[in-house]
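Key result, reporting period 2: structure in, sequence out.
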């Protein structure tokens, strides 16, 4: 029987402007290009081009009602996510885990921390996100974490290459939601 050492603990912190280049590289690596194909969250079969850019990440960091959570292990950036407070709910986005670490439980830990922040620090009762409907595997992963499909769809921003260059004409997003337990429960 092989004995494995437990993974070093994760550190969650609020990202700063100094993190922007590394965050952009992480997000790109999880969704686009050859490196993304090492993990299961790749969108390389659906989209070419960029997933985000420095301006988009910097706007999240600077936003008064948003936070970019940087996740480190042994001082190295291994994951991130965006949270944005929107009245009675939080929006979850820019979620990325290093491709070679996907499937290790790291994503579950990140989303749990994001839900904790939204419920305890922001006192909102719901988390929302949008996911490409073509990503059935990713939607199923979120459903296993308690998110539900709403049927609310929005179009992919065709023609705006800041979000990628589509490889097919039928891309759209669906909103997923999860009720969050109030702080103290």
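The corresponding designed sequence is given below.
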């Amino acid at each position: 029987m092989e004995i494995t050492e437990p993974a070093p603990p994760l550190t969650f912190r609020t990202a700063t402007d100094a993190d922007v280049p590394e965050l952009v590289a992480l997000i790109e690596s999880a969704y686009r290009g050859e490196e993304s194909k090492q993990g299961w969250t790749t969108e390389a079969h659906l989209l070419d081009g960029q997933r985000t850019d420095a301006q988009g990440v910097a706007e999240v960091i600077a936003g008064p009602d948003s936070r970019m959570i940087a996740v480190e292990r042994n001082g190295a950036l291994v994951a991130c996510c965006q949270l944005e407070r929107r009245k009675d709910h939080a929006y979850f986005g820019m979620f990325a885990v290093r491709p070679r670490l996907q499937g290790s439980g790291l994503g579950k830990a990140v989303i749990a921390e994001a839900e904790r922040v939204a419920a305890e620090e922001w006192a909102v009762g719901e988390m929302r996100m949008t996911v490409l409907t073509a990503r059935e595997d990713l939607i199923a992963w979120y459903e296993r974490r308690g998110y539900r499909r709403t049927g609310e769809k929005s179009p992919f921003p065709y023609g705006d290459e800041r979000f990628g260059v589509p490889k097919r004409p039928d891309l759209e997003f669906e909103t997923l939601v999860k009720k969050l337990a109030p702080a103290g429960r």
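The two ends are 40 Å apart (CA to CA). The chain has a mean pLDDT of 91. This case is discussed further under Risks and Mitigation.
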